[in-house]
Design goal:
Layout (H helix, E strand, L loop, with lengths): L5 H19 L5 H26 L2 E4 L10 E4 L1 H23 L10 H17 L3 H20 L3 H32 L4 H11 L4 H14 L9 H7 L2 H27 L3 H24 L3 H16 L2 H6 L5 H36 L4 H4 L7 H15 L5 H15 L7 H22 L17 H17 L5 H6 L10
Antiparallel strand pairs: 1-2
Helix pairs in contact: 1-2, 1-4, 2-3, 3-4, 3-10, 3-14, 3-19, 4-5, 4-10, 5-6, 5-10, 6-7, 6-8, 6-9, 7-10, 8-10, 9-10, 9-12, 10-12, 10-14, 11-12, 11-18, 12-14, 12-18, 14-16, 14-17, 14-19, 16-18, 16-19, 17-18
Amino acid sequence: MNDPSALLGLVVLGPLALVLVTGVLPERWLPPVGLAGAAGTSAAALVLAAHVGRSGPVGHDLAGWGPPLGIVLRADGLSALFLALTALVGAGVTVYAASDRAATGDHPRFWPLWFAVWAGLDAVYVAGDLFNTYVALEVVGLAAVGLVALGGGPAWGPALRYLFVAVLGSTLLLVAVALVYAQAGTLELLAAGERLASSGWDSRWAAVLVVVALGLKAALVPMHAWLPPAHGSAPTAVSAVLSALVVKAAFFVLVRMWFWVLGPEPVLAVVLGLLGALAVLWGGVLALAQRHLKQVVAYSTVAQMGYLFLLFPLTSAAAGDPEVLRAAWGGTAALVVGHGFAKASLFLSAGTLKSVYGTDSLSELARVVRPLPSVVMGMGVAAVTLAGLPPSLGFAGKWQLVVASVGSGQWGWAAVPIGGGLLSAAYLLKPLTVMLREPQDRARPLPESRSASLRVRYAPLLLALVPLVLGLAGPALPDLATTGGPPGGGP
């Protein structure tokens, strides 16, 4: 494409158009239209990400109107990373959903809600100002609540709690955005950051509001209680999207506001790191205690998200050292991508087993004589990534965090990825051991209650393999993540 800036609008307007189309189409047309739309949206996002990786950030003023009156779209390396993750995981989940109606809650409204989430995610990643970032994050949150509610009666309570959390987080974020506007006189990301830096404004209270608001949405311990019930009770395709993509949108916005607008707060950075470490520990312990497979995977989301928050204390302690900054950003980028694919794979695997055998109880699954080989293999490969074993992105990411910890002299942070990897291995081996060992009661084998298509059986494995392949890509992810990086916060 001669004008790559046109892709900035396409990655948002494409899924928005699909919201309208899938909202009025007859039900029988929804899967094929959804597949075609996902393919087109994914292709546009991947082309845009590739262009940013080759040529640097891309910007575009909608209708030729720049700030403060117009809407500015901008994609840098961090945007490209999240756009590509959303494109690939979104395409995989769409294929799965189109192949199994039960994965969507057997409800036609899955499709417009899913594409609303996709449009909102892409809009978050390319928004060039705080107002549109806020609006896009609202779209993601409200559509995600609707998706959870598709799980039926048992999911309505968790969906309502999710709604309350989303509204509270949005209110706090709106107050923080208002404080920034009152001081900077603009909501454009780069301009606001420059004006606040030159004014010497004490941004700590705005930073606290942002951390609490987005910590709620990202389920950072101790603000995590809403997540496991919501993810565990949602339909299979919804759980995969929520864990792999939706919670990361809040983390993305926190990174944007922290490094591009407000500027680092050293004390608050340490607090974020400690909460992240607590999330790794507490989420892992709770995952280990669960007796249902989807709940194990849901609590592991709480634990795995904790690693990402080490970015803040590690960059704060780097003192401008480019090697430490590169390791911190590169490790975080690897974990974001690896976690996205692995968690989508695990939720699709858990949903497939529950659909085929009628339960996800570990004690009941122990009666399975011959579990689905491709599904169990997908679980095993995803576990390699989450436990941080080579050659996966999980290993690359955790190793880089250890390097950044040692390089900055903050040795204590190195214990988090090392200890967390061991804990991850423990809670992920638990369901794998159940599925692979000899049935406890051969006299009462657990039969298949329904069959699963080849696409349903192999989609989790294909998603799980991606982090292994990307783990061999070397410096590609750190280079992409830091293209057009934050002022003073990147290599």
